[in-house]
Amino acid sequence: MAAVDIDMPVETESKIRRQDDMERQAEGFKEKGNSYYSKKDYSEAFNYYTKAIDASPRTASYYGNRAATLMMLSRFREALEDSQQAVRLDDRFMKGHLREGKCHLSLGNAMAASRCFQKVLELEPSNREAQQEKKSAATLLEYERMAEFGFEKRDFRKVVYCMDRALALATACHRFKILKAECLALLGRYPEAQSVASDILRMDSTNADALYVRGLCLYYEDCIDKAVQFFVQALRMAPDHEKARLACRNAKALKAKKEEGNQAFKNNNYEAAYQLYTAALAIDPNNIKTNAKLYCNRATAGAKLKKLNQAIEDCTSAIKLDDSYIKAYLRRAQCYTDTEQYEEAVRDYEKVYQTEKTSDHKILLKTAQMALKKSKRKDYYKVLGVGKNATEDEIKKAYRKRALMHHPDRHSAATPEVQKEEEKKFKEVGEAFTVLSDPKKKFRYDSGHDLEDDGCFDGGDFDANNIFRAFFGGHGGGGGGGGFNFDSSPDSGPGNFFFQFG
Questions:
Q1: 20 to 30 A Cα–Cα from 89, which one of 131, 159, 373, 467?
Q2: Considering only CA atoms, which of 13, 78, 21 is closest in space to residue 50?
Q3: Rounded-to-integer distance, Cα 223 and Cα 388, Å
Q4: Three-state DSSP class for 151?
Q5: How far apart are CA 277 and CA 258, in angstroms?
Q6: Coil, helix or strand for 150?
């Protein structure tokens, strides 16, 4: 039977011809794209693959090729869209599923990536690339699990470790980068945290998580006003961002309470300032720098309230939080001096001077060293029971009282041990009076000089009885029962004795 020629409508034939032309043109664009891709000119390859798609939008391989190019340009979200379109057009397009899985993996979506690689293995069970990538997805899931557990336990170093390894697999995952940056901030590694957050903001200025981390770094560096601006901006981008909301509230509360404490201190209301600083310290234990300042402020208020031991503890807490905090060392050193802990004071002033070699710090160190040196000598003021600003008359009265109290004749009936101890004290009282009653010796003593080294006082040749006789007159001393009659009966008190001036 002879073939029958079928006449097609002119319009249909023309349409088919145009379609064939478009397909040939699309193939030409694809070939040019392949050429540029092989030369690693991915931008031009992208342009030609796009032209191929425009000419033939129902061809899966064109989307697959453009996805591969976008992946090389690190534009993984766009590559994911093209890969998904490719497999929608052809569910058996193995390279499309493989590329979709790789995009999911790079973006940190391990579960979705695993499903894609499983689909490839269903199409080609021996596909080694899919087998390896599926293992990588499983590894990524494990790092995520470990990081989540570490964050709950506040083991931020562990989280950073896990995120570093996760990012080696998921290079474009902003979520992992943000978690790492947040943990770096919580570890006090602010420059590193800011660098990560800033990189993300350069790519996406509206990323609420990155804005939050930038604010967190500023907040922990005690730049609270700037921090609040970033938290507010993050909340504009994502009104339900709970971490930004909490941080913003803490920042505002911390600033307000600290300023209230400062104002109370300026108004000389030290007790109120102390309580306000205490309340501020309870707001956010993670804010190391601000809390260090609050501890130091509370120490300053405590020193005003004569709570010197508490002030020392507060300074120590501040230094534990920030070991470079000079004001805390200076405040603690002063408190150590005020409590006569001179060695500790010298140690703090040495730390300050090593850090900042200023003339003022040098003077403070020298003064503390002199105080330490003086503290190791006999304290003649303490021996006489007078203050360092005692007048000449007060020194004489104190000597009269102490000399009579410890005179050997007064303790002649005591045990040999007591007699020896009282004789020692009697001698010390005489030494103290000899130095403090002589303006030249007193000046040198107050200046920290060793009088024995200067030849101004020779303790070895010193005779306390001579001083006693010169002061009272008569012939006392040495247990010899000279010109003084002491009542040593058991009921006698310190003043129950008779003495007569010569």
A1: 131
A2: 78
A3: 46
A4: helix
A5: 6
A6: helix
353-382 as b/e: b if 16+ CB within 10 A: beeeeeeebeebbeebbebbebeeeeebbe
Q: How many Å from the N-terminal Cα to the C-terminal Cα in the chain?
A: 168
* Residue 406 CB neighbours (<10 A): 20
> How far does Cα 315 stand from its chain's mean position?
15
39 vs 26: CA distance, rounded Å: 20
Q: Which two tokens stand for residue 495?
A: 């003043």
**Burial environment of residue 319 by CB neighbours within 10 A (0 to 12, 13 to 18, 19 or more):** buried
Q: Are 210 and 197 in contact (CB under 8 A)?
A: yes
Residue 127, amino acid: N
CA dist 3 and 247 (Å) reads: 83
Structure tokens at 143: 């790092």
- The total number of residues shown for the chain amounts to 502
Structure tokens at 95: 């390279």
Whole-angstrom Cα distance, residue 154 to residue 308?
Answer: 34
Cβ contact 296:318 at 8 Å? yes
Q: pLDDT tens digits for the chain (502 residues)?
A: 444 455 555 566 666 667 777 889 999 999 999 999 999 999 999 999 999 999 999 999 999 999 999 999 999 999 999 999 999 999 999 999 999 999 999 999 999 999 999 999 999 999 999 999 999 999 999 999 999 999 999 999 999 999 999 999 999 999 999 999 999 999 989 999 999 999 999 988 999 999 999 999 999 999 999 999 999 999 999 999 999 999 999 999 999 999 999 999 999 999 999 999 999 999 998 899 999 999 999 999 999 999 999 999 999 999 999 999 999 999 999 999 999 999 999 999 999 999 999 999 999 999 999 889 888 888 888 888 999 899 999 988 988 998 888 988 888 888 989 889 988 888 988 888 988 888 988 888 887 776 655 555 555 556 777 777 766 765 444 444 444 554 444 333 333 333 332 2
Three-state DSSP class for 498? strand
- Specify whether the CB–CB gap between 185 and 209 falls below 8 A: no
CA-based nearest residue to 197, from 223, 234, 232: 234
Residue 485, strand partner residues: 498
48: helix, strand or coil: helix
- Residue 37 burial (C-beta neighbours within 10 Å; 0-12, 13-18, 19+): buried
Contact assessment for residue 410 and residue 429, using Cβ atoms and an 8 Å cutoff: no
At CA 407, angle to CA 422 and CA 481, rounded to 5? Answer: 125
Answer yes or no: pTM beyond 0.85: no
Residue 363 dihedral angles phi and psi, to the nearest 5°:
-65, -45
